[in-house]
Design brief:
Elements (H helix, E strand, L loop, with lengths): L2 E2 L12 H10 L5 H18 L6 E3 L7 H8 L15 H10 L1 E3 L2 E3 L4 E3 L6 E3 L2 E3 L9 H14 L5 E6 L1 H7 L1 E3 L6 H7 L4 H4 L3 H4 L2 H17 L4 E5 L10 H15 L6 E5 L9 H6 L4 E5 L36 E7 L9 H12 L3 E6 L19 H4 L5 H17 L9 H23 L16 H12 L16 H11 L5 H22 L16 H6 L1 E4 L6 E4 L2 E3 L3 E7 L6 H9 L6 E5 L1 H6 L9 H22 L3 E5 L14 H15 L8 E6 L8 H7 L3 E4 L20 E4 L12 H12 L20 H28 L1
This protein binds ligand 39S, methionine and zinc ion.
């Protein structure tokens, strides 16, 4: 009989209770016990969600992040946090994640990085070659005991752990003796280092395996039936032979624990086809395979997602699974998508399989990346559309229904009970209702997928420079200025109809005028309107484009207490009317300096929303590009001579498998070019990306052919620039000169030094001066101080260049 389970659930709370509790705790408004109480309530909620499942998963809860918790569990705490007197593990964790202040100065937090190709960020553990690991299992025991209290002694529990190989692969290895913040610069270029699985990290695997073994013993003592060892790196097609061998040795050792729970090796986010042979050799009790994937790559073997029918079935090729353990966990429901599954198609496939194996059924990955439940979604999402959706709670219900239907069948005949039949029929009818609605609304226009090239950059640059008359090393910002509580209040009041459109517009205009004045006072060269009308760079545009539906409570954790509310793409994407013209036009009317038009690019719009599954994501990206192209043309016609099209998720959207990189590079850059197709040569197109490991994507970034690219580099002391040499075909570059994620104010000298470093790599005509990213999460006093110093530094170095020219 198949058994049901999930790899994990959301934890931020149906009404973001944990987010609110965390922020109150950090502000000193509630105490530790009050925060703990909310944490316990979130764990109990997760147990209630799992009531109908056969195996109940714990260990997926975290107050901040599970990679961080894993580092704390094994005491992988960098030296700089050890002298802070933080004996409480919860507070120590917050210090690692958020930094700390100390009498000797600020202690820099650990870095954050994207969790594979999701919009979730994990905390990057910092290890060094002398690391000795020890077990601190309080939190593990706590999560198990909470479950036991709620469920009694008989429910089979599974404890979810990030596996040893993935933990090391994603950690960053620092030089021994590093003093913390400074050590980063010596080691790597921002994101680039750890994600590649540093060879040195592998040397720590034997030591780490020993503590994992100890932990497995402890889990057995606690009466846990299963341990879920998550090794999502096993879906990559880029693991070196050394890593593959290391993984094998490690898992052999884990198998030797005399008393251990059963082990479920979990792979997810794509099908693990390249590593199936290794996986088959690993001595584990069960393997979880993601049979859905992320939809951004073009998988060519079993596990491919046929992109034809909505909520499509999996493509399960039995022959590929030979040699895997008898117990297989099949990730058959899309754990990252919001569409109901085609249960009929799934049943047909699974029926052939059910009698051959001891089956476990699960969503493809943890449901962390989905909203909790559709129960509160009556209002924003059109009713017929709602019928076709499934969030976390509804995915689990689908799973239970699948199991019931499969249990009813046998080899000879397949006859689910009346009740199950009825539930299946209802599910089918819901999907059909949604599909009909989509068809009625006229979905399915296939967009053109090519973009004409602009004139050569040299010609454009000449015209742009003549038109804009900017000084050498022009200064600018990335777009947003602080999102103050007052702004949020006004937006909310407008949304709820508590203030009129006129009053709302007046307030936003006031904020724009103020933001322009601030920038003029600082002396910046290219100004922005500050994005005060935007709750989020994606949600805002989704709200103004047809084809996207907004949810009311569909919050998904992005990092720590921060959440995003992705929109749902359900129909062809079109622009019913201009979106930004009024705000940008107003901003430009306040100043003589150029104001950049500010748009969110097509890849980012789709990547940070929930896409359709009935047509390829690529088509949705091109539809968005066509809609944005209209906005670009209208902005240009209105007199905007600089237009920035942010592609913050350009790197995140790169498929996990190397095999899929060339295809992605080609269409993603073409989609970007589509946005600016037909603009005049004298109109300057900017783009911005916040994640800096472009080493595997440089050609695609160059093929976007943007006149100016602003990027995140300051954390790595400009090391990234070494890879962005001229041959890469990039034009003008604005390597961020300071880190906006930190409240620290960079000094003029520090900033000037970074600008001089950048000049070592780029001629002055190609260099722009700007922060790393938007300023929306900072306070005005921080922003003012930092930008003043940045402007001074720019002017200082500008003067050096000019006097250098005179003497030369
Ligand atoms: N989509 C997306 N992904 C991204 C980024 C991004 O900017 N957008 N940036 C990177 C980093 N990620 C980030 C993700 C979230 C936040 C963030 O600050 N989120 C806010 C929510 C943003 C938002 O939509 N706020 C709404 C308010 C939503 C809300 O809480 N409303 C409440 C109460 C509002 C209030 O009084 O404050 C209500 O309606 O009841 C607004 O500004 O208008 C949060 O968690 O606090 C920041 C960075 C990578 N991924
Ligand atoms: C996450 S990238 C942010 C880009 C956007 N224009 C901003 O400045 O906020
Ligand atoms: Zn950014």
């Amino acid at each position: 009989m198949p058994k049901t389970h999930t790899l994990g659930l959301p934890r931020i709370g149906e009404r973001r209770e944990l987010k609110k509790a965390l922020e109150s705790y950090w502000n000193g408004m509630i105490n530790r016990n009050q925060l703990r109480e909310v944490g316990l309530e979130m764990q109990r909620l997760s147990l209630r969600y799992q009531r109908e499942l056969d195996i109940v998963t714990v260990g997926d809860f975290s107050y901040y992040d599970r990679m961080l918790d894993t580092a704390l569990l094994f005491d992988a705490v960098p030296q700089r946090f050890r002298g802070l007197g933080l004996y409480d593990r919860l507070n120590l964790g917050f210090a690692l994640a958020r930094g700390a202040t100390h009498s000797d100065g600020d202690v820099e937090p650990l870095a954050m990085r994207k969790w594979f190709n999701t919009n979730y960020h994990y905390i990057v553990p910092e290890l060094d070659s002398r690391c000795s690991f020890r077990l601190f299992p309080e939190d593990v025991r706590g999560q198990i005991r909470t479950a036991r209290r709620e469920l009694g002694p008989d429910t089979p529990l599974k404890y979810a752990l990030i596996g040893p190989a993935t933990f090391l692969y994603l950690s960053s290895l620092r030089e021994t003796g590093g003093t913390g913040s400074a050590a980063g610069a010596a080691c790597c270029a921002g994101d680039a280092c750890g994600a590649a699985g540093q060879a040195g990290a592998l040397e720590l695997l034997p030591r780490l395996t020993t503590v994992y073994a100890e932990l497995l013993g402890l889990l057995a003592q606690e009466g846990v039936a299963w341990v879920q060892l998550e090794e999502p790196i096993l879906v990559l097609d880029s693991l070196s032979p050394e890593w593959l061998q290391g993984i094998e040795v490690s898992y052999r050792e884990l198998q030797e624990i005399p008393q251990a729970p059963k082990t479920l090796l979990a792979t997810y986010f794509e099908f693990a086809n390249e590593n199936l042979e290794l996986i088959a050799r690993l001595p584990v009790d069960a393997v979880h395979l993601d049979l859905v994937g992320s939809g951004w790559g073009q998988q060519v073997t079993a596990g491919a997602k046929p992109q034809t029918t909505q909520g499509s079935a999996i493509n399960l090729d039995l022959s590929r699974l030979n040699g895997l353990p008898q117990q297989l966990s099949l990730g058959v429901l899309d754990g990252r998508g919001v569409w109901k599954a085609d249960l009929d198609a799934l049943l047909e496939q699974l029926r052939l399989f059910a009698h051959r194996r001891e089956l476990l059924l699960a969503p493809s990955c943890s449901l962390l990346h989905l909203p909790y439940s559709l129960e509160s979604e009556h209002g924003l999402v059109p009713e017929p559309l709602l019928a076709g959706l499934a969030f976390a709670r509804e995915k689990l219900a689908e799973l239970v229904l699948l199991r019931q239907a499969l249990c009813a069948g046998d080899d000879a005949g397949f006859t689910p009970t009346g009740e199950t039949q009825q539930a299946l029929a209802e599910h089918r009818a819901c999907r059909a209702r949604c599909r009909e609605y989509q068809e009625q609304q006229g979905c399915n226009a296939a967009p053109a997928q090519t973009a004409p090239a602009r004139s050569p950059y040299a010609r454009r640059a000449k015209l742009q420079h003549e038109k804009l008359q900017l000084p050498l090393l022009p200064s600018t910002t990335i777009g947003s200025f602080p999102q103050t509580p007052e702004l949020r209040r006004v937006r909310r009041a407008f949304r709820r109809g508590e203030i009129t459109g006129t009053a709302y517009t007046a307030t936003i205009r006031e904020e724009i005028a103020r933001t322009i004045k601030e920038q003029e006072e600082i002396g910046l060269d290219v100004l922005v309107h500050g994005e005060p009308e935007r709750n989020d760079m994606v949600e805002y545009f989704a709200g103004h484009l047809d084809g996207f539906a907004e949810t009311g409570f569909g919050w998904v954790q992005s990092y720590g207490s921060r959440c995003v509310k992705p929109a749902i793409i359900w129909c062809d994407i079109t622009r019913p009317e201009p979106i930004t013209l009024e705000w940008i036009g107003y901003a430009q009317s306040c100043t003589d300096r150029p104001v950049k038009g500010m748009l969110t690019g097509p890849v980012t719009m789709v990547k940070w929303s929930f896409p359709r599954v009935d047509i390829p994501v690529r088509d949705q990206v091109f539809q968005t590009a066509a809609a944005l192209a209209q906005e670009v043309r209208d902005l240009e016609a209105q007199g905007t001579s600089i237009i920035q099209i942010d592609e913050a998720a350009f790197k995140e959207a790169q498929p996990l498998k190397r095999l899929d990189w060339p295809g992605y590079a080609e269409w993603a850059s073409a989609a970007f070019r589509r946005c600016s197709a037909g603009v005049q040569d004298s109109t300057q197109i900017h783009t911005h990306m916040c994640y800096s490991d472009f080493s595997t994507l440089l050609d695609a970034v160059a093929a976007m052919d943007a006149d100016v690219l602003t990027i995140e580099t300051s954390r790595s002391e400009m090391a990234l620039l070494e890879s962005l040499h001229q041959e890469a075909g990039l034009h003008e570059l604005g390597p961020g000169v300071y880190d906006i994620h930190s409240p620290l104010i960079p000094s003029t000298e520090q900033l000037a030094r970074r600008i001089r470093i950048a000049l070592g790599h780029l001629p002055p005509e190609r260099l722009w001066i700007n922060p790393d990213c938007g300023l929306k999460t900072r306070r005005w006093d921080e922003v003012r101080a930092a930008l003043r110093n940045m402007q001074q530094a720019a002017e200082l170095v500008r003067a050096e260049l000019q006097s250098g020219e005179r003497t030369a």
